[in-house]
């Protein structure tokens, strides 16, 4: 890779100092390349299908966000006058160099491919599709680092608790590190061999192919190959040796590949979803000879594949006879413990409830923690909510649900905090329940008559920091015809 190969000569400028006028010249150069690429990719003869990853759209959105991100370093203020936050400047330099490199590669395909670029089966056209996926990954990453155009890379929330602890322990608040540094730290907790295995691991984690690993890329990898305790083993069995794994494949390419196996129902392949980063997309041939692609929700891939095998959906990986046995990846279920503090116990007593009860249905104990926001509820309520909420967000804070964790709430007992069982010192004490919202609610309840909100269906919203009228109005807007009734407490 050109960007990676030039790393040695550019390393002095990859420091944490604020972007300079030289950096801005590179940004302007990248923007011109992107504009040229947009013109070429919209040529009717190219006939690109308007399905992800759609290159003209990716280039347009990248241009808009890139301009917004670099705006603080432009205009009346001299370049460098805006103080960069954390390792923001280093990330921006790495990103713009990588973006320029990929844009040049794409333009070169048009130049050298000539007429062959218009042939869907040509090698240069396939390379253009692969570059489109890289542009998609870079755009997703830039959005994650700069939500709304403002840098938040130093506060990015990793989905998995163990992954978050590893990153903080190894790199603190950095959002980007060189592959070599990352590899050394990862090897200290997950053993893997140097050489071919290390190179294969890099090709999986380094989604943007720039010889650096960002906290976003690490988050995606740990979500794809969860759970953490068997991360490398999962990766080996699901990506390295599994014949059904396809890297850098699009939705349309999956269909084209599976069309060769229409005579063999149960043939399947799986790939990284390019519309929902951090999730898998599995395509298979149905018994009726059709092709279906699905995204398993909040389920480790090996569980989805095992379940699909039992249902005769996933039998022949890439049409082959041998279907790997993934049952060895199963481990005894481990439920994280959530402890109730005395303060939380008293707060819930004041509102006539208990901490362990799900706030949505007020009937079942909380047994599920949403990741990454950490809100707690029971599994039936989460399932009901997801069936009615097309955007798959948390019912409390609307954070995107990246995964779930099975938990056990330990009720508060007087004096229990004085005697900790041996081995529990490192147990996570933060219950992730937003106590501040509860306190605000209680303050509001003391000023106005108390109301209880009852929602029809398992996915109804219970108490939150908002007033009952706010909840009723919000639920009505989202659920449309869903019935909501408010009853006065006695």
From TrEMBL:
CDD domains in the record: SH2_Cbl-b_TKB
Region described as Disordered: spans on this chain: 1-22, 410-434, 456-490
Catalytic activity entry: S-ubiquitinyl-[E2 ubiquitin-conjugating enzyme]-L-cysteine + [acceptor protein]-L-lysine = [E2 ubiquitin-conjugating enzyme]-L-cysteine + N(6)-ubiquitinyl-[acceptor protein]-L-lysine
UniProt keywords, alphabetically: Calcium, Metal-binding, Transferase, Ubl conjugation pathway, Zinc, Zinc-finger
Residue stretches making up the Cbl-PTB domain: 16-328
E.C. designation(s): 2.3.2.27
Biological or metabolic pathway of the protein: Protein modification; protein ubiquitination
Protein name as annotated: E3 ubiquitin-protein ligase CBL
Source species of the chain: Liparis tanakae
Higher taxonomy: Eukaryota, Metazoa, Chordata, Craniata, Vertebrata
């Amino acid at each position: 890779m050109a960007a990676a190969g030039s790393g040695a000569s550019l390393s002095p400028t990859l420091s944490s100092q604020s972007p300079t006028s030289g950096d801005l010249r590179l940004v302007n150069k990248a923007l011109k390349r992107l504009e040229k690429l947009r013109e070429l990719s919209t040529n009717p003869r190219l006939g690109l299908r308007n399905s992800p990853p759609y290159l003209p759209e990716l280039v347009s959105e990248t241009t808009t966000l890139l301009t917004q991100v670099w705006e603080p370093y432009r205009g009346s203020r001299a370049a460098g006058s805006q103080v960069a936050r954390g390792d923001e400047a280093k990330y921006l330099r790495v990103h713009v160099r990588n973006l320029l490199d990929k844009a040049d590669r794409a333009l070169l395909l048009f130049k050298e491919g000539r007429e062959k670029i218009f042939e869907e089966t040509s090698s240069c056209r396939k390379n253009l599709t692969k570059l489109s996926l890289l542009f998609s990954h870079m755009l997703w990453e830039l959005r994650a680092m700069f939500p709304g155009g403002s840098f938040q890379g130093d506060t990015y929330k990793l989905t998995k608790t163990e992954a978050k602890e590893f990153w903080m322990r190894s790199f603190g608040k950095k959002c980007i590190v060189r592959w070599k540094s990352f590899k050394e730290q990862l090897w200290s907790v997950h053993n893997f061999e140097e050489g071919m295995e290390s190179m294969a691991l890099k090709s999986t984690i380094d989604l943007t192919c720039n010889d650096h690993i960002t906290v976003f890329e690490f988050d995606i990898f740990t979500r794809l190959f969860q759970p953490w305790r068997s991360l490398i083993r999962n990766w080996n069995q699901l990506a390295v040796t599994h014949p059904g794994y396809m890297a850098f494949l699009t939705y349309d390419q999956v269909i084209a590949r599976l069309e060769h196996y229409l005579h063999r129902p149960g043939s399947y392949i799986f790939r990284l979803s390019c519309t929902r980063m951090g999730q898998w997309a599995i395509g298979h041939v149905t018994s009726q000879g059709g092709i279906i692609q699905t995204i398993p929700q909040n389920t480790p891939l090996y569980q989805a594949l095992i379940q699909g095998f039992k249902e005769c959906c996933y039998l022949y990986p890439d049409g082959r006879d041998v279907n790997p046995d993934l049952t060895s990846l199963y481990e005894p279920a481990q439920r994280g413990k959530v402890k109730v503090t005395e303060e939380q116990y008293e707060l819930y007593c004041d509102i006539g409830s208990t901490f362990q009860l799900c706030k949505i249905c007020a009937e079942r104990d909380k047994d599920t923690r949403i990741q990454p926001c950490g809100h707690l509820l029971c599994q039936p309520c989460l399932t009901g909510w997801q069936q009615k909420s097309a955007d798959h967000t948390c019912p409390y804070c609307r954070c995107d649900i990246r995964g779930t964790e099975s938990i056990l709430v330990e009720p508060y007992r007087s004096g229990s905090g004085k005697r900790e069982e041996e081995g529990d010192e490192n147990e996570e004490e933060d219950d992730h329940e937003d106590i501040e919202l509860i306190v605000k609610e209680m303050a509001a309840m003391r000023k106005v008559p108390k109301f209880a909100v009852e929602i029809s269906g398992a996915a109804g919203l219970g108490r939150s920091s908002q007033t009952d009228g706010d909840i009723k109005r919000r639920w009505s807007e989202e659920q449309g015809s869903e019935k909501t009734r408010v009853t006065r407490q006695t």
